[in-house]
Amino acid sequence: MSTEKTAESAPVFAERRWFYPSALLHELDLDTDATRSGRRPRRTARDWVVDFCCFLLAVLVGLLGIQSLMDNPAVPHSVVAADQMIGALSCAAIWLRRRWPLGLAAVMTPVSFVSETSGGVAVIALFSLAVHRPFRYVAWVGGVHALLVPLYFWWRPDPELPYLASLVLFTVLLVAVVGWGMFVRSKRQLMLSLRDRARRAETEARLRAEHAQRGAREAIAREMHDVLAHRLTLLSVHAGALEFRPDAPREEIVRAAGVIRESAHEALQDLREIIGVLRTGESEDAGRPQPTLAALDTLVAESRQAGMKVILDQRVPGSAAVPASVGRTAYRIVQEALTNARKHAPGTEVAVSVAGGPGEGLTVSVRNPPPQGDVPPVPGAGQGLIGLTERATLAGGTLEHGRAPDGGFEVRARLPWG
């Protein structure tokens, strides 16, 4: 059952609530005053109609029983009057069959044995018990009825039917009543189970949608950090150099301004791509191609142009053959490590090493020595390294980072290459 179908059928079900029993409406937990307050639900229009029909049926059976007793000259008039009184009270008890089905059925078992006019009430009470209570209660009460049937017809034989025929007829009637009641109960339980399954399906669909949205937001946030942090760090470093060294040679000012302009242009381009993904809902493959391991030389060249000292040791035969996801992860790791080295250890020589091959995996290492002198504090929450660890884990690899023995900092990752 789809959530759309359930949503369409729910209003129809609510509009036709008068057609269903009050007990079923209560079990379905629809928006009713009785459900919210925890009280027993009021009878619906259908309940009143059914109960009134059961009352009329019991009265009709009782009238037939009275006529049978009056036509039997062997029955004293006092017994007929007492039987009529018991039958009248039994018919009035029909209205209690929804509130106390087990109690009514248990009481009517011995009463119907001594009162012929209460037979219809006993059958209706057994049917109500089969509808509202589990089978174990029906088995006990129905079993007692089945044991009393031979004694009843032995005590009060039917003048028009032989003893065996009366036994068979009444036994078939008991089985039919119990079977009908169990069928009604199973149908209601089926409706309850379908309602419960529909609710679970709606909840699971909502949770899946929320999980997908959360995953997409995390991926976009990670991508924005990895892409823009590198560019913005270049802007910050060179803008700071221009601020603190206004008397620098013209060539250095021109070079720094060029790096700022180029970095700002690249940052805007990357931001435009990410916003385009948000608008179109497409994957990260939209827009210009994502960087792979083959673009590592360009990244190092940009860092060197920005004034960093970077040594690249790439020992990967045929870097173009590296899987795109693995190459992109390695590129992002090197990019983030260079950004951190530029912020926290400016002026140091950064060693980048990439090695590996098919079947043995890809090893990426970025290491820088401790900075010389005091380094001004740079704001950061360590989210970049957390994102790199998550990237490596999603790619099936591992990432470690921390202080080196000489006081520097090292980022080391191992990625699978099948």
TrEMBL record:
<keyword id="KW-0067">ATP-binding</keyword>
<feature type="transmembrane region" description="Helical">
    <location>
        <begin position="161"/>
        <end position="183"/>
    </location>
</feature>
<dbReference type="InterPro" id="IPR036890">
    <property type="entry name" value="HATPase_C_sf"/>
</dbReference>
<keyword id="KW-0547">Nucleotide-binding</keyword>
<dbReference type="Pfam" id="PF07730">
    <property type="entry name" value="HisKA_3"/>
</dbReference>
<keyword id="KW-0597">Phosphoprotein</keyword>
<feature type="transmembrane region" description="Helical">
    <location>
        <begin position="137"/>
        <end position="155"/>
    </location>
</feature>
<keyword id="KW-0418">Kinase</keyword>
<feature type="transmembrane region" description="Helical">
    <location>
        <begin position="104"/>
        <end position="130"/>
    </location>
</feature>
<feature type="transmembrane region" description="Helical">
    <location>
        <begin position="48"/>
        <end position="70"/>
    </location>
</feature>
<dbReference type="InterPro" id="IPR050482">
    <property type="entry name" value="Sensor_HK_TwoCompSys"/>
</dbReference>
<feature type="domain" description="Histidine kinase/HSP90-like ATPase">
    <location>
        <begin position="329"/>
        <end position="416"/>
    </location>
</feature>
<dbReference type="InterPro" id="IPR003594">
    <property type="entry name" value="HATPase_dom"/>
</dbReference>
<keyword id="KW-1133">Transmembrane helix</keyword>
<keyword id="KW-0472">Membrane</keyword>
<feature type="domain" description="Signal transduction histidine kinase subgroup 3 dimerisation and phosphoacceptor">
    <location>
        <begin position="217"/>
        <end position="281"/>
    </location>
</feature>
<keyword id="KW-0808">Transferase</keyword>
<protein>
    <recommendedName>
        <fullName>histidine kinase</fullName>
        <ecNumber>2.7.13.3</ecNumber>
    </recommendedName>
</protein>
<keyword id="KW-0902">Two-component regulatory system</keyword>
<dbReference type="InterPro" id="IPR011712">
    <property type="entry name" value="Sig_transdc_His_kin_sub3_dim/P"/>
</dbReference>
<keyword id="KW-0812">Transmembrane</keyword>
<dbReference type="Pfam" id="PF02518">
    <property type="entry name" value="HATPase_c"/>
</dbReference>
<dbReference type="GO" id="GO:0016301">
    <property type="term" value="F:kinase activity"/>
</dbReference>
